[in-house]
Structures are given as structure tokens and as C-alpha cells.
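User: Assemble these into one structure.

Assistant: Restating your components, then the assembled model:
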Amino acid sequence: RKEVEQDPGPFNVPEGATVAFNCTYSNSASQSFFWYRQDCRKEPKLLMSVYSSGNEDGRFTAQLNRASQYISLLIRDSKLSDSATYLCVVNMDSLGIQGAQKLVFGQGTRLTINP
Amino acid sequence: AAGVIQSPRHLIKEKRETATLKCYPIPRHDTVYWYQQGPGQDPQFLISFYEKMQSDKGSIPDRFSAQQFSDYHSELNMSSLELGDSALYFCASSLGSSGGRETQYFGPGTRLLVL
């Protein structure tokens, strides 16, 4: 079983739609969680960190459920420019050691927004 | 704002040759992480350095070595290259902090092709 699992999609949705991605992780001691987006052949770019209380950044909302080891990302009013692969990323370090906070990536969910 | 710099951006090598990839972190960042992303795969952690010392090690082959220098830049040395080493190699930098609160910022990657 992969340490971070997410539905690979692809998701094809019309512009303006709301789309939700889910992700589960295996290490209950993990301390920090992120969503990155990756465009084809480019580097992963941080979209947002995910906090226990849930957090929102414009059209993007992230939620964390530690009890279920579940992370979600909601995109509202989707734009053509949102087309990308969305990576659920977990810091698997449970000791909080400086410089030892390797990231473990889900396989990514491919999203295409159609005009 | 200054980002992570990687060089070269593209590299073509023959089997059994050696390669050196370089990473220049964001100014004032003291931590560097190396990741390998094969075709159609998610990034996999290789190795990390904090304050010029190796801080964590992942699935890095014995043929690879890395170090972080006094100016915090890092180099990944790859010897006896194999066809399977063809991948995107990302470097990420962060400001080392305890408690699992580091945020990693990725460079544009080096695309290595082994023929």
C-alpha cells in the first residue's frame, strides 16, 4: 500500500465547475500536509499547506481529518488555468527533526478544465 | 523573489558515464532535498542536507552521492549511469525548522536522459 494515495483521475470538468480531490495517508504521526500542483514537465509548486482547522485561499479550500487520515482539496469556480496535476503531499517525519522532513507524494490527480 | 536554481536543465549521458547535478537554494535557506521523478511517476525522495550535514536518506542508489557546500549549494553526483536513471531530478530548499513546519520550494529540475 502506498503511503499517500489519491485518485489519479483524470478529472475533466467544465469551466466554472466545483471539483474536489481526496487523499489518504498511512502514517498517523505525520505532522504537515500540503497540496502542490505540477504542470507538465515542470516542477511541483506549492498550492497550499493544510491545517487541522481547514484553510481557504481564494477559490481553494483544504481540509484535514487526522482521525481518518484524510486530506481534501476543493476548487470552486474552476478556471482554464487550473488544469494541472494536483499532488497530495505529506511530510512523513514524525520527530520534527530539522532538515529531515522528507515529503512523500501521492501519484497525483490529473485535472483538465474544459471551456 | 529568488527561486531555487538548478543546473544543467537538460543532460544527455551514455550508460556507465558520470553526471553532476547542481542546486542553488533560495537565499538564506539552509536545507536542501533531492527528489527523483521517473516518467509517469511521483517524485521520490533521495537525500537531504541541513547545515551542510546529511540529514536524511531515502531511496538513493549507492552509485549516487551528494554533498552540501559552505555556501549551501548542493551537488548530486551520479556514477555508472544506467538507463533507469533517466528522470527529472528536483532539488527543493527550505529553512530548516523543528516540529515539522518546513515548507519546501522546488527548483525547475534537471532532465537527465541516459542512452
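Chain A touches chain B at residues 30-32, 34, 36, 41-46, 49, 87, 91, 93-94, 96-108 (CB under 8 Å).
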